[in-house]
Amino acid sequence: DNDRCHPTRPFRCPGDETICISIQYLCDGAPDCPDGYDEDHRLCTAAKRPPVEETANFLQTLLANHGPNYLEKLFGDKARDALEPLGGIQKVAVALSESETLEDFGIALHLMRTDLDHLRNVFRAVATDDVGMLKSLGIRDSELADVKFFLDKLVSTGFME
Fold first, then answer.
1. Does 85 share its domain with 14?
2. What SMART domains would the database entry show (predicted)?
3. Burial (0-12, 13-18, 19+ Cβ within 10 Å), 161
């Protein structure tokens, strides 16, 4: 099958031609795809983060377990109704995966400065283990582990830089 890549070169470059490269050549500083897509900053950021599907499933689980407005505590008023005003769970998951920094995330989802500052404070509270601040947002003890797990994954990949 000419449209499939060999297992040793599983990354297929976008385009009509079937050009496949090894994973080791992704985000290595040298373009290997004809259009340089293998060095695209969004791709390289996403490569460090959990897969979009995993993030979307996690967001869905948080909403299912804690209610459709739960993420408003993190993302602000635009996160009401299961993230619909932000474009829905999938769009938020993609933005979390592809946005290099918190600022980029705010731009991608058109967050207001107050919402972005709020989210930054939430990240800081998680990073410094400031449970008091998280509780002041209405995050219950039973929810703290989920929130910390979710945000720690982003912080560890440079989201706050």
1. no
2. LDLa
3. exposed
Residue 103 backbone phi and psi in degrees, to 5: -60, -45
Distance of CA 131 to the CA centre of its chain: 23
Dihedrals φ, ψ of 101, to 5°? -130, 170
20 assigned to some structural domain: yes
30 and 61, same domain (yes or no): no
**Count of structural domains within the chain:** 2
The per-residue pLDDT for range 64-87, each reduced to its tens digit, is 988 898 888 888 888 888 899 999
Residue that the structure tokens 């293998």 belong to: 38
Provide the token pair at 86.
Answer: 């932000």
pLDDT at residue 105 is higher than 90? yes
Give the structural domain span for 62: 48-155
Nearest to 103 by CA among 72, 95, 46, 41: 95
pTM of the model: 0.76
